[in-house]
Amino acid sequence: MATGRQHRPATRSRGIPEATVARLPLYLRALTALSERSVPTVSSEELASAAGVNSAKLRKDFSYLGSYGTRGVGYDVEYLVYQISRELGLTQDWPVVIVGIGNLGAALANYGGFASRGFRVAALIDADPAMTGKQVAGIAVQHVDDLETIIHTGGVSIGVITTPGGAAQQVCERLVAAGVTSILNFAPTVLTVPEGVDVRKVDLSIELQILAFHEQRKAAEEMGGQVGREPGDGEQAVMPA
Amino acid sequence: MATGRQHRPATRSRGIPEATVARLPLYLRALTALSERSVPTVSSEELASAAGVNSAKLRKDFSYLGSYGTRGVGYDVEYLVYQISRELGLTQDWPVVIVGIGNLGAALANYGGFASRGFRVAALIDADPAMTGKQVAGIAVQHVDDLETIIHTGGVSIGVITTPGGAAQQVCERLVAAGVTSILNFAPTVLTVPEGVDVRKVDLSIELQILAFHEQRKAAEEMGGQVGREPGDGEQAVMPA
DNA sequence: TAGATTGTTAATCGATTAACAATC
DNA sequence: TAGATTGTTAATCGATTAACAATC
Question: Chain A window 30-89: which residues touch B at a Cβ cutoff of 8 Å?
Answer without folding.
Answer: 30, 50-52, 66, 78-79, 81-82, 86-89
